[in-house]
Amino acid sequence: MKKLLSLLEKKYRWYSILTPILIVGEVIMEVIIPMIMAQIVDVGIANNDIRYVLIAGGLMVLMAMLSLGFGAGAGRTAAIAGMGFAKNVRREMFHKIQDFSYSNVDRFSTSSLITRITTDVTNAQNAFMMVIRMLVRSPIMLISASFMAFRLNRELSMIFLFAIPILAIALALIITKAYPRFQHMLKKYDKLNAKVQENLIGIRVVKAFVRGDYENEGFEEASAAVRDTQLKAERTIVLNMPIMQLVMYSCIIAVLWIGGNMIINGSMETGNLVAFISYITQILMSLMMISMAFTMLVISKASVNRIYEVINDTPDISDADADETLTVKDGSIDFDQVCFSYKGDLTSCALRNIDLHIKSGETVGIIGGTGSSKSSLVHLIPRLYEVTDGSVKVGGRDVRDYKLPALRNEIAMVLQKNVLFSGTIKDNLRWGKEDASDEEIIAACKAAQAHDFIMSFPDGYDTELGQGGVNVSGGQKQRLCIARALLKKPKIIILDDSTSAVDTATDSKIRAAFARDLADTTTIIIAQRVSSVCDADKIIVLDNGRIHAVGTHEELLKTNEIYREVYESQQKGVA
Q1: What would the 3-class secondary structure string for 334-355 be?
Q2: N vs C: which end of the chain shows fewer Cβ within 10 Å?
């Protein structure tokens, strides 16, 4: 929590400081009121002094109004501070996630990150507001009311001294039982969010396969799991209030009994008993509020730990020691004895002993079966993952020598899973180049064979895309992503099976445009179709994470059995 509190901006810190000050004012007013009330009973009413009653009553009203003003002010400042705290924490988490490498993101599921940045931050925000209000108000009220009660009658004050240990023991037992249950509940929230996210992303597949009932059952199970774990956790928490009230009312009954006898015996005045009951009510209410605050802190502790895990996680890839002045001079790529494992363990490598040298401006095709680590290979070039052993060089320098923006700005990637964002087509294309002119955008789209279908829309380049580009086809989405990459004018462009959804004629036109417009750009094409790479300067055949062969289309047809089998099977399919 100390780490999170350090994120508070200066203006919100002032609100956080002002809240307790206003709370102190509210408590002072509330503590004075019972004393005035005692004087009204013992002096004004006892002596039938109406003027005294009116003056004292007016003072009580004034104190109550001041207390209301202080309380309302504290509520407002606490809300501003709490909202600012939540905003800063969410911003820090979001920025930290942007710095994560692929391997960092792999450690946290998307659904878990969503839960942490929403539900967990809300829990932390509620706890923060409770700390600056309730955990300030309640102890001050407890001390002040105890002091006043002790002044009125020492003997009666002994009653609530017995209540405090009972409440403390009960609270400790509740906290011990509740914390692990709330941790378990938040994990169930992660699974529920994962189910919802998966279903919404794949809603078209669900409908196509008529799996709505199955998905409903899965959602019901995940939702029921959250409900059951929450009920289990809440069953422990709800014990707090009955225990507190039992102790509170027992103390009041004891005070009334003993105090009533004192009045009969003449050792205590009626007004003092009335004031004492008010004070003991304030004391016990303060204890209840403290117990509720600690209960809330228990609930939020699990959330705070989960937030801290994200904020404190160190990105696996860092460019802190990189040369800020270093730029990528050309598109040459060298893999020197590269081994890569997603677990960072050389005993389970996805890529092993990769020696590969690509000249600047070359077009290189990569062919291999499913699971042969084609995508893993190209992800090492822009340093999306870190090599486990060996080195990858771009422009003659190890990729670890570059600042990440300097390296990645010279490498354009069109990934297997094409992603478009909400906004216009033009907005999405300008991800490649923020200040791209309309002429540059049109030229890139023509090269990617996207211009014609864009212009078929009523709004052309200003057509609004739904979230994820749901209102364009798979092939159209691929071509838009290729155009976006072309706008970067990179030294290296990587196409990771990015023409799989377009027809062969369009694929051929895209490759022709690449050969014409990207003569000086190193082009790496991962493809399942041999026709997509047959014109490449060299083709790499990957098999089980190793380079099986390297050569031109004609050379591999003669010398490599894997490549020949792929080619012949596709030619039979065409026939």
Answers
A1: EEEEEEECCCCCHHHCCEEEEE
A2: C
